[in-house]
What does this fold into?
Amino acid sequence: MTIEYDEKGKFYTEVVTKIPAAVVIQTTAHLIRGLVHIRKGERLKSELEWDEKFLAVTQATIHDANDHVLFTAPFLAILRDQIVWIMPMDDEGAATE
It folds into this structure.
């Protein structure tokens, strides 16, 4: 890992700091609950605008139409084209504003 400094003493590193955000994601076929990791100082919307084919979700649970858990996984990559909507959740599982 390299660290570079500018003339004001600010340092730059290759490490990207991210903060986990609890979300509910509706895809074309399933409902997914898990954590999306957002770059520090950014919004969930900004994370969705990155030009990457997949969205990484950790601590994922995949639910069917009756809200039964079909699968759980420590990591899941969701094809962004399959996302219908995404909603941030708070610690109690309620939608945030």
